[in-house]
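Before going further, learn to read the protein records used in this course. A complete example follows; check for yourself that the lines match position by position.
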Amino acid sequence: MLTATLLTLSLALTGTGLADPHKKDIAMRLVSSAENSSLDWKAQYGYIEDIDDDRGYTAGIIGFCSGTGDMLKLVQLYTRREPHNVLAKYLPALRKVNGTDSHKGLGRRFVRDWKKAAKDPAFQRAQNDERDRVYFDPAVKQAEKDGLRALGQFVYYDAMVMHGPGGDRLSFGGIRKSALAKAKPPARGGDEAAYLNAFLDARKKAMKAEEAHEDTSRVDTMQRVFLRNRNLDLKPPLTWKVYGDKYTIKK
């Protein structure tokens, strides 16, 4: 049986993981289908709205939220790199609304300026970098440690995006803990598909615990479809549905 280190090395050598640029782009398109009803994830830098999930504004390529702190950190990064950017003046307001669903100090002007900033390549790079730092890289790293291939890495990443990287029962860490209580990942000698099913079961419970996430189609008619097809390497063509809409990635 391969050790976790050898499994990680094997995944890297075979190019089956999301570290592969094309596989990473596929993951971005899959998430965008669920978050923005579009496969064009690069068109989402300027997306911003309040989706009534008690997290304030949701915006950008993976849904940075004004109420959860990741939007604040994004704008701080952007401002360190471009001090005179159009969003810098909203930093005091973003600090005050962090942890709430308030729009105080933001509002229509902030929405307008977010869309303006989204045309700036520096802001686009900042979104990419924060996505990777907070969500993508930690998810892929943990999945590799658990011996999971591309599908499992995507499953972790999608959960990290929606639920956050924390350790409580409704965050990624809590979901993974629940899964580990039911099945072993490949790095611990378990069956990969059985473990992923346990993880998706735990994730569905977490989704249903929050009204804004109670539609579980991104699990039921996307990730479960790939898993039932034993497409553990997430190889195109891929066909799935989210919220009843059908999508296909041909290559």
